[in-house]
Amino acid sequence: MRALWTAATGMQAQQLTLDVVANNLANVQTGGFKRSRVDFQDLVYETLQAPGAASAQGQEIPSGFQVGHGSRAVATQRLFIKGDLQQTGNALDLAIEGEGFFQIQQPNGDLAYTRAGAFKKDSQGRMVTSDGFLLDPEITIPQNALNITVGVDGIVSVTVAGQTQPQQIGTLQLANFINPAGLLSQGRNLFIPTQASGDATTGTPGQDAFGTLLQGFVEGSNVNVVEEMIGLITSQRAYEINSRAIRTADDMMQTANNLVRV
Amino acid sequence: MDAAMYKALSGAVAQMRHLEVTSQDLANVNTSGYKRQRLAFSEVLATRLPANDRPGGWVAIGDQRTQLEQGAVGGTGNPLDLAIEGDGFFVIQTNRGERYTRNGGFTLKADGTLITPTGDAVLGEGGPVQITGQKVEVASDGSVRSDLGELGRIRIVRFIEPRQVVKEGANLFVTTPPNVQAAGDNVRIVQGSLEQSNMSPIDGMISLITINRQFESYQRAMSLMDSATERMIADAAR
Fold first, then answer.
1. What DSSP assignment string belongs to chain A?
2. What digits encode the pLDDT tens for the residues B149-199?
3. Residues of B with CB below 8 A from A259's CB?
4. Whether A39 and B117 lie within 8 Å, measured CB to CB
């Protein structure tokens, strides 16, 4: 019975959806998190009778008969829809309003990209992520800085003790990709470029298509609990109905077995 | 007697086929752009016998149709998710030739070509659609623009005879080129949305129950005929 295996592929596909939904829900409070979804496709078909084949001299069968083999998950796609902005009042919390990513230097020297802009200072006053990875270009905040201002265009300036004029200490840059959905998630809110995402183009916040910076805000997760719940319900029901198809196939085989009386 | 037994058997076999098709629909209840299939059964006559003495009653699959009716359009917010409202299909370039799909969950290649998740290019009016720049917008007539200006128009086609269309898997349909023409003006593209599968779990549930019960009836019929024969043999031997 092909139906057994067909329904089993449907159940596997729904299990995978559940895994992805669970990960989305686990990150409902993760700053800068972007939700994923699973894309499905139907599997190959066996054509038992091709449409247009001749049924008799001069007669064509108007439609054929095809039996499919189920469905499969073909990709998990990350959706770069904006998350809600949350006000924190913290001078080193930065949110990007619009397109773009912060550039982060990983310990191995490679660049990674993030939308999570909750930065901290390390022992030398450099701006780092919560994991201690450096922001690129490096911004060092002097020890005697009284307050830090980050402009919408990424210019970082500080006022130091004993001076009234703010002094400029650096400019933040943003990176963007032609296809952000092709980025590879690395955990720790970081993404790395792939063949599919293309190479990063960098630029000044607010120029071209780059977003502007907003100080004292962080971008929240773009996971919408209601949406995920609906995803959870539909995939659970789809799982259930596929298991019913398996049970029907099983019942039918039992019925067939009952044909022979012993 | 034999004929009756085989008639019941042909009915049982048809129901097994019906289950295979239904379980395929159910496995794809969450596949974007999936179109369900419908079977029609037909009676087969023993045509070799004289015209006034043809016992009917054999069952065969008469017709299988892909139900092209619209699936629900659900918002995703992703700019490269496109749904079609109305009678139209996206044209996909594969190395086997042109294919057609209703699944508009597209993505980009590194060079900006619009592709399906399996990497085949989506065709526009003049070849593959290339996307450059930011803020991609797709209008309801399929024209694509970004902050760098117009980028072309996505090609939407319809089938002249929808029954001459075969499913290929990977959400793709295949047909012969003369069966394809440009879609009408009433077809709209909705950006940031995907068309869901048009298979409804409730219909599937009902199908599963009827298939199961009908299969059981055929089995009953076969068992009854078998016991009748048994009794006949026993009576004759007495």
1. -HHHHHHHHHHHHHHHHHHHHHHHHHTTT-TT---EEEEEEEPPEEEEE-TT-EEETTEE-SS-EEEE--EEEEEEEE--PPPPEEE---TTBEEEESB-EEEEE-TTS-EEEES--B-EE-TTSBEE-TT-PEEES--B--TTEEEEEE-TTSEEEEEETT-SS-EEEEE--EEE-S-GGGPEEEETTEEE--TTT---EEE-TTSTTBPEEEETEEE-----HHHHHHHHHHHHHHHHHHHHHHHHHHHHHHHHHTTS--
2. 899 999 999 999 888 888 999 999 999 888 999 998 889 999 999 999 999
3. 219, 222-223, 226
4. yes
Among A40, A44, A256, select the one facing B32 at the smallest CB separation. Answer: A40
B190 and B217 fall within a common domain: no
For the segment B136-160, what is each residue's pLDDT rounded down to a tens digit?
A: 899 999 999 988 889 999 999 999 9
Contact B26 A51 (CB under 8 A): no
Residues of A in contact with B212 (CB under 8 A): 248, 251-252, 255
Note down the domain range covering B32: 2-69+199-237
Residues B19, A244 contacting (CB under 8 angstroms): no
Task: Find out whether B196 and B76 touch, Cβ atoms under 8 Å.
Answer: no
The answer to whether A3 contacts B219, with C-beta atoms less than 8 Å apart, is no
Query: Is residue B182 domain-shared with residue B230, that is, in the same domain?
Result: no
ipTM of the complex: 0.78
Q: Touching check for A99 and chain B: CB below 8 Å?
A: yes
Number of domains in chain B: 2
pTM of the model: 0.83
* B179 and B222, same domain (yes or no): no
